[in-house]
Amino acid sequence: MTEFKIHDLESAPLNSKPLLEKSVKGFGMVPNLHGVMAEAPELLEAYQIIHGLFQNTSFNAEELTVVWQTINVEHECHYCVPAHTAIAHMMDVNPALTEALRNKQPMPTEKLQALHETTLALVRNRGHLSEEEIGKFFAAGYAQRQILEIVLGISQKVMSNYTNHLAETPTDEPFQKFAWKP
User: Fold this and answer.
1) At what angle do helices 95-102 and 80-90 cross, to 10 degrees?
2) Exposure on the CB side of residue 175, measured as CA atoms within 13 A
3) What tens digit of pLDDT does each residue of 62-93 get?
4) Would the N or C end of the chain have less CB density within 10 A of its end CB?
5) In whole angstroms, what is the distance from residue 1 CA to residue 171 CA?
6) Which fold has domain 6-56?
7) Alpha-carbon gap, residue 63 to 93, rounded angstroms
8) Same topology for domains 6-56 and 60-178, yes or no?
9) Which residues fall within 8 angstroms of residue 124, CB to CB, at 6 or more apart?
10) Per CATH, which fold does 60-178 belong to?
11) Alpha-carbon span 119 to 10, nearest angstrom
């Protein structure tokens, strides 16, 4: 398999250096994912922008976690599942929710279950949902805005999950205690 370079502040292409500095400021390190993405500065920049935009949606910390981890688990991302488990802990999300997502178990509330099922259906069906699926999502208390925000979350996760599959990105030391296998 082709080995992908994991850049640091010294080896990164010139246009990626300020982006990696932003990563250090936010995470206290250059996450390996960002180091891999740094080879294509536009990808790293787009990822950072979309990540910030998704965090600023109408979703709370639990809902963000449901969307992220539903996609990560469905895509079988060895890197993002542990990384987002750590992020969920930092956001004070109940660990029982994270474990349910990691283990494909039911969500603790009907509303979160509807979010999980809708996210999964959007990923599996490439954006196609039946009227029944959309109706169930809306009946759970969500609106058109949230279904479109899921699309934003999927966009972010496609960037990271696919990059990690290609590069076989090693899990960063702080995330290793949350290691996961499909």
Assistant:
1) 170
2) 23
3) 999 999 999 999 999 999 999 999 999 999 99
4) N
5) 18
6) 1.20.5
7) 10
8) no
9) 74
10) AhpD-like (1.20.1290)
11) 38
Q: DSSP class of residue 152?
A: H
> For residue 155, how far is the Cα from the chain centroid?
9
**Token reading at 58:** 């109408």
CB-CB contact of 176 with 56 (8 Å):
no
d(CA 60, CA 55): 9
Asked if residues 124 and 74 have their Cβ atoms less than 8 Å apart, the reply is yes
Closest CA to 34 of 153, 159, 140: 159
Domain boundaries, the chain: 6-56, 60-178
Distance CA 20, CA 92 (A): 26
Q: Which of 21, 74, 71, 13 is nearest to 38 (CA)?
A: 13
Q: How far apart are CA 115 and CA 110, in angstroms?
A: 9
Q: In whole angstroms, give the CA distance from residue 91 to residue 83.
A: 12
Q: pLDDT tens digits, residue range 88-147?
A: 999 999 999 999 999 999 999 999 999 999 999 999 999 999 999 999 999 999 999 999
User: Which residue, chain included where needed, has tokens 């079988």?
Assistant: 76
For the chain, the maximum distance between any two Cα atoms, rounded to a whole number of angstroms, is 52
Contacts with 36 (C-beta within 8 Å, 6 or more apart), sequence order: 4, 5, 6, 7, 163, 164, 167, 169
Residue reference for tokens 């910030």: 52
